[in-house]
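Tokens in:
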């Protein structure tokens, strides 16, 4: 699949670009392997900067996977994010 703006949302009051990273949430049915591919976030290239963080919630086969990625590079038209860190989903009770 491709990026869908329907799943894209800024988090909080948003920092001023350049003074602190911005944070975004993105929900998708794509796997994280698809979402962390260079070019996947090109549609929001004008909104994100290097260092901005994106919480990617991907749901494939009914299983939610939450991954934190950050923007590695942004040419103004091509965005690349890191592979990401998957947040643990253990439940001890």
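Residues out:
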């Amino acid at each position: 699949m491709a990026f869908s703006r329907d799943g894209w949302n800024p988090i909080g009051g948003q920092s001023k670009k350049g003074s602190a990273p911005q944070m975004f949430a993105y929900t998708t049915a794509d796997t994280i392997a698809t979402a962390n591919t260079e070019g996947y976030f090109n549609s929001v290239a004008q909104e994100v900067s290097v260092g901005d963080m994106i919480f990617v919630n991907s749901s494939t086969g009914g299983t939610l996977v939450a991954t934190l990625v950050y923007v590695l590079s942004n040419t103004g038209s091509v965005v690349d994010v890191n592979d990401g860190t998957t947040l643990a989903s253990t439940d001890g009770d």
